[in-house]
Amino acid sequence: MLLEVLIAAIIGLALAWAAAHRLPHRLPARVLVLPTGVAGALFGAFVTHSALGVGNLLPDLLGAAVFATASLSLLLRPAGRLRGRSATV
């Protein structure tokens, strides 16, 4: 169980670091991005472990990766500039 938590945290940290490295212009400060990835991965591992039970390491880690990616995607800002005019003009 402890190994599963450690691996899930490493997965979340790795995904957050990769996102912060590849998309620095679309994400907030790295101080927010890295803990968000770790927290998302730990929550995903917890949810998957609760749903599937003991003895399912690979699905738990897959759930950790999915939740970490989903939580990091919530931090993304739009790529382009938003237009200031209305569509009805």
UniProtKB/TrEMBL annotation:
Domain of life assignment: Bacteria
Residue ranges crossing the lipid bilayer per the database entry: 6-24, 31-51, 57-76
Swiss-Prot/TrEMBL keywords: Membrane, Transmembrane, Transmembrane helix
Name of protein: Integral membrane protein
